[in-house]
Amino acid sequence: MVKSFGEPVTELVEAAQRSGIVLLAADEAVAWHHLDAMISSALASPVRFAQAGGAPAIGDLFALANAIAGMVGGATVIEDPHRRILAYSTLPGQAIDEGRRQGILGLHVPDGPEYDEQYRTLAQAVRTCRFPAVHGGLPRLGVAVRAGGEQLGSIWVVDTEDRLDSAAEQTLCDVVDIVSLHLLAARTAVDAVRRRRADLLRRLLTDPSSVTTVAPQLGLDPNLPVAVAAFAVASSKADDVLVAHAATRLADLVSLHCEAHYGRHGCALIDGTVYALLPSGPSPNAHRELVADIARRAHGALQVPVQAGLGSLVQGLHSIASSRADADLVLRALTDQLGDPEPCQVATIDEVWAGATLFALARILAAHEALPRRLGPAVRAHDLEHDTTYAPTILAYLDANSDIAAASNRLSVHPNTVRYRLVRAQEIFGFDLSDPDQRLVLWLRLRLGDQLGW
Protein backbone atom coordinates (compact mmCIF):
# COMPACT_ATOMS: atom_id res chain seq x y z
CA MET A 1 0.00 0.00 0.00
CA VAL A 2 1.33 3.44 -0.91
CA LYS A 3 0.47 7.10 -0.52
CA SER A 4 1.61 8.77 -3.72
CA PHE A 5 1.44 12.44 -2.60
CA GLY A 6 1.07 13.39 -6.26
CA GLU A 7 4.11 11.41 -7.43
CA PRO A 8 3.86 8.83 -10.27
CA VAL A 9 3.73 5.20 -9.16
CA THR A 10 4.24 3.60 -12.58
CA GLU A 11 7.40 1.74 -11.55
CA LEU A 12 5.73 0.41 -8.42
CA VAL A 13 2.74 -0.82 -10.43
CA GLU A 14 5.03 -2.63 -12.87
CA ALA A 15 7.04 -4.19 -10.04
CA ALA A 16 3.84 -5.34 -8.31
CA GLN A 17 2.54 -6.91 -11.51
CA ARG A 18 5.82 -8.77 -12.10
CA SER A 19 5.80 -10.08 -8.54
CA GLY A 20 2.12 -10.95 -8.36
CA ILE A 21 1.59 -8.53 -5.46
CA VAL A 22 -1.53 -6.42 -5.01
CA LEU A 23 -0.70 -2.69 -4.86
CA LEU A 24 -3.22 -0.40 -3.15
CA ALA A 25 -3.26 3.41 -3.21
CA ALA A 26 -4.29 4.98 0.08
CA ASP A 27 -5.86 8.38 0.65
CA GLU A 28 -3.16 10.70 1.99
CA ALA A 29 -5.43 11.91 4.82
CA VAL A 30 -5.95 8.44 6.32
CA ALA A 31 -3.51 7.53 9.12
CA TRP A 32 -1.40 4.42 8.58
CA HIS A 33 -2.49 2.78 11.81
CA HIS A 34 -6.15 3.20 10.79
CA LEU A 35 -5.38 1.49 7.48
CA ASP A 36 -3.55 -1.27 9.32
CA ALA A 37 -6.54 -1.91 11.58
CA MET A 38 -9.01 -2.01 8.69
CA ILE A 39 -6.85 -4.33 6.60
CA SER A 40 -6.15 -6.66 9.52
CA SER A 41 -9.87 -6.87 10.20
CA ALA A 42 -10.72 -7.46 6.53
CA LEU A 43 -8.11 -10.21 6.14
CA ALA A 44 -9.19 -12.07 9.28
CA SER A 45 -10.35 -15.57 8.31
CA PRO A 46 -14.04 -16.29 8.94
CA VAL A 47 -13.03 -19.89 9.54
CA ARG A 48 -12.00 -18.90 13.05
CA PHE A 49 -15.63 -18.21 13.93
CA ALA A 50 -16.72 -21.58 12.64
CA GLN A 51 -14.08 -23.20 14.84
CA ALA A 52 -15.23 -21.17 17.82
CA GLY A 53 -18.50 -23.05 18.00
CA GLY A 54 -21.04 -20.31 18.63
CA ALA A 55 -18.68 -17.51 19.65
CA PRO A 56 -20.36 -14.23 20.71
CA ALA A 57 -21.25 -11.77 17.97
CA ILE A 58 -18.50 -9.36 16.97
CA GLY A 59 -18.48 -6.36 19.27
CA ASP A 60 -20.11 -8.04 22.28
CA LEU A 61 -17.01 -8.01 24.48
CA PHE A 62 -18.89 -8.72 27.72
CA ALA A 63 -20.40 -11.89 26.29
CA LEU A 64 -16.95 -12.85 25.05
CA ALA A 65 -15.45 -12.27 28.53
CA ASN A 66 -18.13 -14.56 30.01
CA ALA A 67 -17.40 -17.21 27.38
CA ILE A 68 -13.67 -17.13 28.17
CA ALA A 69 -14.34 -17.25 31.91
CA GLY A 70 -16.46 -20.36 31.40
CA MET A 71 -13.88 -22.06 29.16
CA VAL A 72 -10.80 -21.25 31.27
CA GLY A 73 -12.39 -21.39 34.71
CA GLY A 74 -11.70 -17.99 36.22
CA ALA A 75 -13.04 -14.43 36.33
CA THR A 76 -11.87 -12.65 33.16
CA VAL A 77 -11.23 -9.10 32.03
CA ILE A 78 -10.36 -7.81 28.56
CA GLU A 79 -8.25 -4.63 28.43
CA ASP A 80 -6.94 -2.23 25.81
CA PRO A 81 -3.20 -1.33 25.49
CA HIS A 82 -3.69 1.59 27.91
CA ARG A 83 -4.95 -0.75 30.69
CA ARG A 84 -8.53 0.40 30.34
CA ILE A 85 -10.95 -2.41 31.13
CA LEU A 86 -13.16 -2.92 28.08
CA ALA A 87 -15.18 -5.85 29.42
CA TYR A 88 -15.33 -8.22 32.38
CA SER A 89 -17.05 -11.53 33.10
CA THR A 90 -20.00 -11.81 35.47
CA LEU A 91 -20.34 -15.57 35.97
CA PRO A 92 -21.53 -16.50 39.49
CA GLY A 93 -19.25 -18.40 41.83
CA GLN A 94 -15.93 -17.19 40.39
CA ALA A 95 -13.69 -15.51 42.97
CA ILE A 96 -12.34 -11.99 42.46
CA ASP A 97 -10.00 -9.84 44.57
CA GLU A 98 -9.82 -6.17 45.57
CA GLY A 99 -7.59 -5.27 42.62
CA ARG A 100 -10.22 -6.52 40.18
CA ARG A 101 -13.00 -4.74 42.10
CA GLN A 102 -11.16 -1.41 41.95
CA GLY A 103 -10.37 -1.93 38.28
CA ILE A 104 -14.01 -2.57 37.40
CA LEU A 105 -15.22 0.40 39.43
CA GLY A 106 -12.85 2.77 37.63
CA LEU A 107 -12.70 0.77 34.38
CA HIS A 108 -8.93 1.07 34.64
CA VAL A 109 -6.23 -1.10 36.22
CA PRO A 110 -4.89 0.50 39.42
CA ASP A 111 -1.41 2.02 39.23
CA GLY A 112 1.52 0.29 40.90
CA PRO A 113 5.10 -0.85 40.17
CA GLU A 114 4.12 -4.52 40.43
CA TYR A 115 1.49 -4.04 37.73
CA ASP A 116 4.00 -2.17 35.56
CA GLU A 117 6.39 -5.10 35.70
CA GLN A 118 3.64 -7.57 34.81
CA TYR A 119 2.61 -5.56 31.75
CA ARG A 120 6.21 -5.28 30.58
CA THR A 121 6.59 -9.05 30.84
CA LEU A 122 3.31 -9.66 29.03
CA ALA A 123 4.24 -7.31 26.17
CA GLN A 124 7.34 -9.41 25.44
CA ALA A 125 5.72 -12.84 25.77
CA VAL A 126 4.10 -14.81 22.97
CA ARG A 127 2.21 -17.27 25.16
CA THR A 128 0.15 -17.25 28.33
CA CYS A 129 2.03 -15.96 31.39
CA ARG A 130 1.49 -16.80 35.08
CA PHE A 131 1.72 -13.95 37.56
CA PRO A 132 1.83 -14.16 41.37
CA ALA A 133 -0.63 -12.35 43.58
CA VAL A 134 -0.17 -8.58 44.00
CA HIS A 135 -1.05 -6.63 47.17
CA GLY A 136 -2.62 -9.65 48.84
CA GLY A 137 -4.81 -10.44 45.83
CA LEU A 138 -5.06 -13.58 43.74
CA PRO A 139 -2.69 -14.99 41.08
CA ARG A 140 -3.53 -14.45 37.42
CA LEU A 141 -3.03 -15.80 33.94
CA GLY A 142 -2.41 -13.18 31.28
CA VAL A 143 -1.93 -13.16 27.53
CA ALA A 144 -1.33 -10.35 25.05
CA VAL A 145 -3.75 -9.87 22.15
CA ARG A 146 -2.06 -8.87 18.90
CA ALA A 147 -2.80 -8.21 15.24
CA GLY A 148 0.42 -8.56 13.33
CA GLY A 149 3.07 -6.65 15.26
CA GLU A 150 0.63 -4.40 17.10
CA GLN A 151 -0.65 -5.15 20.58
CA LEU A 152 -4.40 -4.54 20.72
CA GLY A 153 -4.87 -5.36 24.38
CA SER A 154 -4.68 -8.22 26.85
CA ILE A 155 -6.77 -10.89 28.61
CA TRP A 156 -6.46 -11.55 32.34
CA VAL A 157 -7.97 -14.49 34.26
CA VAL A 158 -8.05 -14.80 38.06
CA ASP A 159 -6.41 -18.06 39.13
CA THR A 160 -7.98 -18.93 42.48
CA GLU A 161 -5.56 -21.02 44.60
CA ASP A 162 -3.41 -21.77 41.52
CA ARG A 163 -5.99 -24.27 40.25
CA LEU A 164 -5.71 -23.40 36.55
CA ASP A 165 -3.49 -25.93 34.79
CA SER A 166 -1.65 -26.06 31.45
CA ALA A 167 -4.93 -26.83 29.68
CA ALA A 168 -6.28 -23.47 30.87
CA GLU A 169 -3.13 -21.77 29.58
CA GLN A 170 -3.60 -23.36 26.16
CA THR A 171 -7.28 -22.45 26.09
CA LEU A 172 -6.39 -18.84 26.75
CA CYS A 173 -3.88 -18.91 23.87
CA ASP A 174 -6.49 -20.46 21.60
CA VAL A 175 -9.02 -17.64 22.11
CA VAL A 176 -6.54 -14.82 21.40
CA ASP A 177 -7.31 -14.75 17.68
CA ILE A 178 -11.04 -14.47 18.32
CA VAL A 179 -10.51 -11.66 20.82
CA SER A 180 -8.27 -9.84 18.34
CA LEU A 181 -11.13 -9.83 15.81
CA HIS A 182 -13.49 -8.37 18.40
CA LEU A 183 -10.99 -5.68 19.40
CA LEU A 184 -10.26 -4.77 15.78
CA ALA A 185 -13.96 -4.48 15.01
CA ALA A 186 -14.59 -2.43 18.13
CA ARG A 187 -11.63 -0.15 17.46
CA THR A 188 -12.63 0.39 13.83
CA ALA A 189 -16.10 1.46 14.95
CA VAL A 190 -14.70 3.75 17.64
CA ASP A 191 -12.18 5.24 15.20
CA ALA A 192 -14.95 6.06 12.74
CA VAL A 193 -16.89 7.94 15.44
CA ARG A 194 -13.73 9.67 16.66
CA ARG A 195 -12.79 10.77 13.14
CA ARG A 196 -16.26 12.26 12.67
CA ARG A 197 -15.94 14.21 15.91
CA ALA A 198 -12.47 15.36 14.88
CA ASP A 199 -13.86 16.62 11.57
CA LEU A 200 -16.57 18.56 13.41
CA LEU A 201 -14.10 20.11 15.84
CA ARG A 202 -11.75 20.97 12.97
CA ARG A 203 -14.61 22.80 11.29
CA LEU A 204 -15.44 24.61 14.53
CA LEU A 205 -11.83 25.73 15.04
CA THR A 206 -11.33 26.92 11.47
CA ASP A 207 -14.78 28.48 11.07
CA PRO A 208 -16.27 29.76 14.37
CA SER A 209 -19.35 30.93 12.46
CA SER A 210 -20.35 27.24 12.20
CA VAL A 211 -21.08 27.05 15.94
CA THR A 212 -24.86 26.89 15.47
CA THR A 213 -24.52 23.88 13.18
CA VAL A 214 -21.62 22.04 14.78
CA ALA A 215 -22.24 22.48 18.52
CA PRO A 216 -25.40 20.28 18.64
CA GLN A 217 -23.57 17.51 16.76
CA LEU A 218 -20.81 17.57 19.36
CA GLY A 219 -23.36 17.69 22.17
CA LEU A 220 -22.13 21.11 23.33
CA ASP A 221 -23.92 24.20 24.56
CA PRO A 222 -22.83 27.14 22.33
CA ASN A 223 -22.62 29.32 25.45
CA LEU A 224 -20.41 26.87 27.34
CA PRO A 225 -17.18 28.43 28.71
CA VAL A 226 -14.29 26.58 27.05
CA ALA A 227 -10.55 26.70 26.57
CA VAL A 228 -8.51 25.29 23.69
CA ALA A 229 -5.40 23.24 24.40
CA ALA A 230 -2.78 22.69 21.69
CA PHE A 231 -0.26 19.82 21.69
CA ALA A 232 2.67 19.33 19.32
CA VAL A 233 5.66 17.06 18.81
CA ALA A 234 8.64 19.35 19.42
CA SER A 235 11.17 17.66 17.17
CA SER A 236 12.76 19.71 14.39
CA LYS A 237 15.60 17.26 13.74
CA ALA A 238 13.55 14.12 13.21
CA ASP A 239 12.40 12.79 9.88
CA ASP A 240 9.19 14.45 8.65
CA VAL A 241 7.44 11.11 8.23
CA LEU A 242 8.32 10.06 11.77
CA VAL A 243 7.13 13.38 13.17
CA ALA A 244 3.84 13.06 11.26
CA HIS A 245 3.34 9.54 12.60
CA ALA A 246 4.10 10.69 16.13
CA ALA A 247 1.61 13.55 15.73
CA THR A 248 -1.10 11.08 14.71
CA ARG A 249 -0.41 8.91 17.75
CA LEU A 250 -0.35 12.04 19.91
CA ALA A 251 -3.83 12.89 18.62
CA ASP A 252 -5.07 9.45 19.69
CA LEU A 253 -3.60 9.83 23.18
CA VAL A 254 -4.98 13.34 23.68
CA SER A 255 -8.41 12.23 22.47
CA LEU A 256 -8.38 9.24 24.81
CA HIS A 257 -7.57 11.31 27.91
CA CYS A 258 -9.94 14.16 27.07
CA GLU A 259 -12.80 11.73 26.52
CA ALA A 260 -12.16 10.21 29.94
CA HIS A 261 -12.43 13.65 31.60
CA TYR A 262 -14.92 15.63 29.53
CA GLY A 263 -16.81 13.20 27.33
CA ARG A 264 -16.71 12.78 23.61
CA HIS A 265 -16.27 16.31 22.34
CA GLY A 266 -13.35 15.26 20.17
CA CYS A 267 -9.90 16.53 19.36
CA ALA A 268 -8.51 17.48 15.95
CA LEU A 269 -5.12 17.21 14.25
CA ILE A 270 -4.57 20.32 12.12
CA ASP A 271 -1.24 20.94 10.35
CA GLY A 272 0.72 18.86 12.85
CA THR A 273 -0.90 20.38 15.95
CA VAL A 274 -3.44 18.51 18.09
CA TYR A 275 -6.25 20.71 19.41
CA ALA A 276 -8.57 19.71 22.23
CA LEU A 277 -11.68 21.44 23.52
CA LEU A 278 -11.78 21.69 27.33
CA PRO A 279 -15.10 22.70 28.93
CA SER A 280 -14.91 24.83 32.05
CA GLY A 281 -13.44 22.76 34.88
CA PRO A 282 -14.18 22.62 38.62
CA SER A 283 -11.20 24.87 39.45
CA PRO A 284 -9.08 27.49 37.63
CA ASN A 285 -6.09 25.12 37.60
CA ALA A 286 -8.01 22.02 36.45
CA HIS A 287 -7.22 22.59 32.77
CA ARG A 288 -3.55 23.31 33.46
CA GLU A 289 -3.16 20.14 35.51
CA LEU A 290 -4.93 17.98 32.92
CA VAL A 291 -2.87 19.37 30.02
CA ALA A 292 0.36 18.81 31.95
CA ASP A 293 -0.67 15.24 32.80
CA ILE A 294 -1.55 14.45 29.18
CA ALA A 295 1.75 15.92 27.95
CA ARG A 296 3.76 13.86 30.45
CA ARG A 297 1.95 10.66 29.55
CA ALA A 298 2.31 11.35 25.83
CA HIS A 299 6.03 11.98 26.19
CA GLY A 300 6.42 8.74 28.14
CA ALA A 301 4.43 6.72 25.60
CA LEU A 302 5.84 8.21 22.39
CA GLN A 303 9.40 8.90 23.59
CA VAL A 304 9.50 12.23 21.72
CA PRO A 305 9.57 15.80 23.06
CA VAL A 306 6.04 17.13 23.57
CA GLN A 307 4.92 20.74 23.97
CA ALA A 308 1.50 21.83 25.15
CA GLY A 309 -0.10 25.26 25.26
CA LEU A 310 -3.33 26.22 27.01
CA GLY A 311 -5.38 29.09 25.64
CA SER A 312 -7.48 31.43 27.72
CA LEU A 313 -10.96 30.48 28.91
CA VAL A 314 -13.59 32.11 26.67
CA GLN A 315 -17.29 32.56 27.42
CA GLY A 316 -18.79 30.56 24.59
CA LEU A 317 -17.89 28.68 21.42
CA HIS A 318 -18.33 31.81 19.30
CA SER A 319 -15.05 33.07 20.81
CA ILE A 320 -13.17 29.81 20.34
CA ALA A 321 -10.86 31.34 17.73
CA SER A 322 -9.41 33.62 20.41
CA SER A 323 -8.54 30.73 22.72
CA ARG A 324 -7.02 28.77 19.84
CA ALA A 325 -4.89 31.79 18.86
CA ASP A 326 -3.64 31.98 22.46
CA ALA A 327 -2.74 28.28 22.46
CA ASP A 328 -0.84 28.69 19.18
CA LEU A 329 1.07 31.66 20.61
CA VAL A 330 2.05 29.59 23.65
CA LEU A 331 3.42 26.79 21.46
CA ARG A 332 5.42 29.28 19.41
CA ALA A 333 6.77 30.95 22.55
CA LEU A 334 7.88 27.55 23.89
CA THR A 335 9.56 26.74 20.58
CA ASP A 336 11.45 30.06 20.56
CA GLN A 337 12.79 29.76 24.10
CA LEU A 338 16.57 29.91 24.28
CA GLY A 339 18.58 26.87 25.31
CA ASP A 340 17.92 23.17 24.86
CA PRO A 341 14.19 22.41 25.02
CA GLU A 342 12.93 20.21 27.82
CA PRO A 343 11.40 16.84 26.82
CA CYS A 344 8.00 17.97 28.09
CA GLN A 345 7.00 21.65 28.12
CA VAL A 346 3.62 22.98 29.25
CA ALA A 347 2.50 26.59 29.67
CA THR A 348 -0.50 28.90 29.64
CA ILE A 349 -0.71 32.22 27.84
CA ASP A 350 -0.18 34.01 31.17
CA GLU A 351 3.05 32.11 31.82
CA VAL A 352 4.72 33.00 28.51
CA TRP A 353 3.09 36.36 27.79
CA ALA A 354 6.40 38.01 26.85
CA GLY A 355 7.40 35.45 24.22
CA ALA A 356 3.83 35.22 22.95
CA THR A 357 3.68 39.02 22.55
CA LEU A 358 6.95 39.03 20.60
CA PHE A 359 5.63 36.40 18.20
CA ALA A 360 2.40 38.36 17.70
CA LEU A 361 4.48 41.47 16.95
CA ALA A 362 6.61 39.46 14.52
CA ARG A 363 3.51 38.54 12.54
CA ILE A 364 2.46 42.20 12.43
CA LEU A 365 5.89 43.31 11.23
CA ALA A 366 5.98 40.57 8.60
CA ALA A 367 2.64 41.75 7.23
CA HIS A 368 3.81 45.37 6.76
CA GLU A 369 6.48 45.29 4.10
CA ALA A 370 6.04 49.01 3.54
CA LEU A 371 7.73 49.83 6.87
CA PRO A 372 11.31 51.14 6.52
CA ARG A 373 13.65 48.17 6.42
CA ARG A 374 16.85 49.92 7.45
CA LEU A 375 16.14 49.15 11.14
CA GLY A 376 17.06 45.50 11.19
CA PRO A 377 17.01 43.77 7.80
CA ALA A 378 19.47 46.23 6.28
CA VAL A 379 21.92 45.68 9.14
CA ARG A 380 21.82 41.91 8.72
CA ALA A 381 22.17 42.22 4.95
CA HIS A 382 25.21 44.47 5.36
CA ASP A 383 26.83 41.94 7.73
CA LEU A 384 26.36 39.16 5.20
CA GLU A 385 27.73 41.21 2.32
CA HIS A 386 30.72 42.80 4.09
CA ASP A 387 31.48 40.17 6.74
CA THR A 388 30.80 42.63 9.57
CA THR A 389 29.17 42.03 12.95
CA TYR A 390 26.97 45.10 13.45
CA ALA A 391 23.71 43.17 14.05
CA PRO A 392 24.98 40.94 16.92
CA THR A 393 26.80 43.91 18.45
CA ILE A 394 23.73 46.14 18.47
CA LEU A 395 21.55 43.33 19.77
CA ALA A 396 24.00 42.51 22.57
CA TYR A 397 24.17 46.20 23.50
CA LEU A 398 20.37 46.55 23.61
CA ASP A 399 19.94 43.22 25.45
CA ALA A 400 22.37 44.53 28.07
CA ASN A 401 20.27 47.67 28.65
CA SER A 402 22.86 49.86 26.91
CA ASP A 403 25.65 48.64 29.20
CA ILE A 404 28.87 48.69 27.14
CA ALA A 405 30.82 46.54 29.61
CA ALA A 406 28.12 43.86 29.77
CA ALA A 407 27.78 43.82 25.98
CA SER A 408 31.55 43.45 25.52
CA ASN A 409 31.56 40.50 27.93
CA ARG A 410 28.79 38.81 25.95
CA LEU A 411 30.69 39.31 22.71
CA SER A 412 34.13 38.60 24.20
CA VAL A 413 35.59 41.81 22.73
CA HIS A 414 37.07 45.00 24.19
CA PRO A 415 34.56 47.71 25.26
CA ASN A 416 36.15 50.16 22.82
CA THR A 417 35.40 47.71 19.99
CA VAL A 418 31.71 47.78 20.95
CA ARG A 419 31.75 51.62 21.07
CA TYR A 420 33.40 51.83 17.63
CA ARG A 421 30.94 49.41 16.03
CA LEU A 422 27.93 51.28 17.48
CA VAL A 423 29.19 54.62 16.19
CA ARG A 424 29.89 53.19 12.72
CA ALA A 425 26.48 51.46 12.61
CA GLN A 426 24.70 54.76 13.31
CA GLU A 427 26.72 56.45 10.57
CA ILE A 428 26.06 53.70 8.02
CA PHE A 429 22.38 53.04 8.69
CA GLY A 430 21.20 56.42 9.90
CA PHE A 431 19.50 55.51 13.16
CA ASP A 432 19.94 57.17 16.55
CA LEU A 433 20.53 54.94 19.58
CA SER A 434 19.71 57.83 21.89
CA ASP A 435 16.11 57.79 20.61
CA PRO A 436 14.13 55.31 22.80
CA ASP A 437 11.57 54.62 20.05
CA GLN A 438 14.27 53.78 17.53
CA ARG A 439 16.06 51.60 20.09
CA LEU A 440 12.82 49.69 20.74
CA VAL A 441 11.99 49.11 17.07
CA LEU A 442 15.60 48.24 16.24
CA TRP A 443 15.72 45.70 19.08
CA LEU A 444 12.42 44.14 17.98
CA ARG A 445 13.56 43.78 14.38
CA LEU A 446 16.92 42.31 15.32
CA ARG A 447 15.42 40.09 18.01
CA LEU A 448 12.72 38.75 15.68
CA GLY A 449 14.93 38.50 12.61
CA ASP A 450 14.91 34.70 12.51
CA GLN A 451 11.10 34.56 12.78
CA LEU A 452 10.76 37.16 10.04
CA GLY A 453 13.23 35.44 7.74
CA TRP A 454 15.77 38.27 7.88
From TrEMBL:
List, for all copies, the residue spans of the domain called CdaR GGDEF-like: 210-333
Tell me which residues make up the PucR C-terminal helix-turn-helix domain: 392-448
- Membrane-traversing stretches: none
Source domain of life is Bacteria
Task: Write the protein's name.
Answer: PucR family transcriptional regulator
